[in-house]
Design brief:
- The protein is mainly α and 320 residues long.
- It has one domain.
- It has 15 helices and no strands.
- The protein starts with a helix and ends with a helix.
């Protein structure tokens, strides 16, 4: 063993010993902080968001890697209409049959773009899949047993918002705004599949954690009395629940039960919560930035918020 190796090993042992001593010194104050109700609530929200999202994230990156490696490029050219304007609603309709949340749809949309699908169609799929899939609509029906029209309203407003955003990107979007990270490739298809899935999981998972931390922090800082103050105003109620959906970052499979509990708000306001949340929230923004680049997310998320809010408000006004 060389002197350099001995020095490195000694340094590692000393570092570990120092960390253990530091932990023992701050253990008492740290226990006091971690035992406070606010910190416990923050931890519960953070863990619940991550646990809800991880299975769908794993499903999404697995499907994304399978699309990138095993599906031939010409398949999508045949499956979707050649005209980009027609490919957008077709891709949105395809998103309705994928049982997953936004954590899974983001990497899949990235794989579609890599395979040559027009970004407008891939983005319509990205928005439609978490908002309109059968699991989400079934959960909505269970959460609103006395309001079956809520399922129809959510499907109609979500589909409209997805298609409108796809068409907006088709007309106004720029290719340089999207910057997809390079995938890891292997010398065989299965190694390429494993490398691509592992790369996307680590990349998107990191942004998921950041988004979940931000959502949990904002959740514990929003006083309940603020919600009571705006619930009686129809316009403020819609805006408040739209912003609340962004901040809470609840998985689309569970948000209907939260919306059903907000009985002080109108049906239109709760519909807005259900439409905006799966399309624009903190963890989704972070994951979009990690998958497509920050320039993309900074433009796409605000536009999606306005379109989703408008579609939900119009749908609710017409139905109720």
């Amino acid at each position: 063993m060389t002197d350099t190796e001995v020095g490195r090993r000694t340094g590692s042992v000393e570092l570990l010993a120092g960390l253990l001593v530091l932990f023992l010194l701050v253990r008492g104050p740290l226990d006091d902080v971690l035992g406070t109700p606010m910190v416990q609530t923050w931890t519960t929200i953070f863990v619940s968001i991550v646990l809800q999202a991880v299975p769908f994230l794993v499903f999404g990156v697995t499907l994304s890697a399978a699309i990138a490696v095993f599906v031939p490029r010409h398949f999508f050219a045949k499956a979707l209409p050649k005209h980009p304007a027609l490919a957008v609603p077709a891709a949105a309709a395809t998103g309705m049959v994928l049982p997953g949340c936004e954590c899974g749809s983001v990497p899949v949309a990235g794989a579609l773009v890599r395979k040559g699908v027009t970004p407008a169609a891939a983005l319509a799929f990205l928005l439609a899949a978490p908002a309109l899939n059968p699991v989400v609509l079934a959960a909505t029906a269970i959460a609103f047993p006395d309001q079956p029209s809520m399922v129809l309203a959510r499907a109609a407003a979500g589909l409209a918002a997805s298609v409108v955003m796809g068409w907006l990107w088709l007309g106004l979007g720029r290719a340089e705004w999207i910057k997809l990270p390079d995938h890891i490739h292997g010398d065989t298809r299965w190694r390429a599949f494993a490398g691509a899935a592992g790369h996307d999981l680590m990349h998107a998972g990191g942004f998921l954690v950041v988004g979940a931390m931000a959502a949990a922090t904002l959740d514990v800082l929003i006083p309940d009395r603020w919600l009571q103050a705006v619930a009686d105003n129809p316009v403020l109620g819609v805006l408040a629940l739209s912003l609340l959906a962004v901040l809470l970052s609840i998985c689309s499979e569970a948000d209907a039960f939260v919306a059903a509990s907000l009985t002080q708000f109108s049906l239109t306001a709760r519909l807005t919560f259900l439409v905006v949340g799966p399309m624009v929230d903190l963890k989704l923004f972070a994951m979009q930035a990690g998958t497509f680049g920050r320039r993309f997310a900074a433009r796409f998320a605000p536009a999606t918020f306005v379109v989703a809010l408008t579609c939900a408000a119009v749908t609710g006004t017409v139905l109720w």
